[in-house]
From TrEMBL:
Pfam families per the UniProt record, alphabetical: adh_short
Native species: Penicillium citrinum
SUPFAM superfamilies on file: NAD(P)-binding Rossmann-fold domains (SSF51735)
Molecular function GO terms recorded: oxidoreductase activity
Protein name (record): Uncharacterized protein
InterPro entries, alphabetized: NAD(P)-bd_dom_sf, SDR_fam
Keywords assigned: NADP, Oxidoreductase
Superkingdom per UniProt: Eukaryota
Segments passing through the bilayer: none
Entry's family note: Belongs to the short-chain dehydrogenases/reductases (SDR) family.
């Protein structure tokens, strides 16, 4: 029986049902490190035997920890590490060039923009942008554009952009994305801005690039808000979890929502909606935005 797609579905159920859909395909995912969503996804999907898995992350020590585990468990899959520092435009362009030049990877069937940092204190990158905005959005926008020709050369290209429900607490401050050089910066609205940008990026890519795919109806671009899960994403706030959560609750209250406390922790089930969309190659999902397994728009 075909498994449902909800908070109780296990990734292993979808791999068993739909694994043949990605067997032999090439996948690139960002944001892979121990105890991350990226690691969880990689461990589940490798069971389905993709031909190539490009694992992108930073720093190299954490990246290799995951690559070694996957390589040992699945020696028949080409596991390719890609050092990707999303705090620097230069450190994204170089890895992207490396991916494009891979002669043994003629196309990328599935591109997953998963990496991110959350609710960090204000800091500018070497390029002059607030660190969350550049890490979460600008450099994923750059990477996706640089790799897009390789993605669109696939017969069934899929691009997945992992956003966050926290997009609800702020829009994009077009005229002041650096929050007056940090003077007006607040950790959750700043994070929310980057995730709002992710959502708009998803819709724009679907609109502008879908017709260029070999099979446009299969060019899936899904923006996902995975829900609350226990990962290393909030590790920097581990010593002040109460303040970390209270800050977000206050922002929600200002919008008259009770979002955070209505969510269920999904742990390894967080990737269910990603797996299902990838395996089923959903023909109607271009530009789709999902939250907690539910389609929003």
């Amino acid at each position: 029986m075909t498994p449902p797609c909800n908070q109780d579905t296990r990734g292993s159920e979808l791999v068993a049902e739909y694994g043949l859909e990605i067997s032999g395909e090439s996948i690139l995912i960002t944001g892979v490190s121990p105890e991350s969503l990226g690691e969880n996804f990689a461990k589940q999907v490798t069971i389905a035997k993709p031909a190539v898995f490009i694992i992108a992350g930073h720093p190299i020590s954490k990246l290799h920890d995951v690559v070694n585990v996957l390589g040992t468990a699945h020696p028949d899959i080409k596991i390719k590490p890609l050092v990707l520092n999303l705090l620097s435009f230069t450190d994204v362009r170089k890895p992207a060039e490396n991916v494009i030049s891979l002669t043994d990877v003629p196309h990328i069937d599935i591109l997953i923009n998963n990496a991110g940092i959350m609710a960090f204190p204000y800091k500018q990158t070497e390029d002059g942008f607030e660190s969350q905005f550049q890490t979460n959005h600008l450099n994923h926008f750059l990477l996706t554009n640089l790799a897009m020709e390789k993605v669109l050369s696939s017969k069934a290209p899929r691009a997945i952009i992992v956003s966050s429900g926290v997009h609800r607490v702020d829009h994009i401050r077009w005229a002041d994305h650096n929050s007056n050089e940090g003077k007006n910066s607040q950790r959750w609205p700043t994070y929310g801005q980057s995730k709002t940008a992710h959502t708009l990026m998803t819709v724009a890519f679907a609109d502008k690039l879908g017709s260029r795919a070999s099979f446009p109806s299969l060019c899936v671009r899904v923006c996902l808000c995975p829900g609350v899960s226990h990962t290393n994403l909030s590790a920097h706030g581990i010593h002040d979890q109460a303040s970390f959560c209270v800050d977000l609750t206050q922002k929600d209250n200002s919008y008259f929502t009770k979002w955070l406390w209505g969510m269920a922790a999904m742990t390894s089930r967080t990737w269910i909606k990603v797996l299902r969309r990838i395996f089923m190659r959903a023909r109607s999902a271009a530009g789709l935005v999902m939250s907690m397994c539910e389609e929003l728009f």
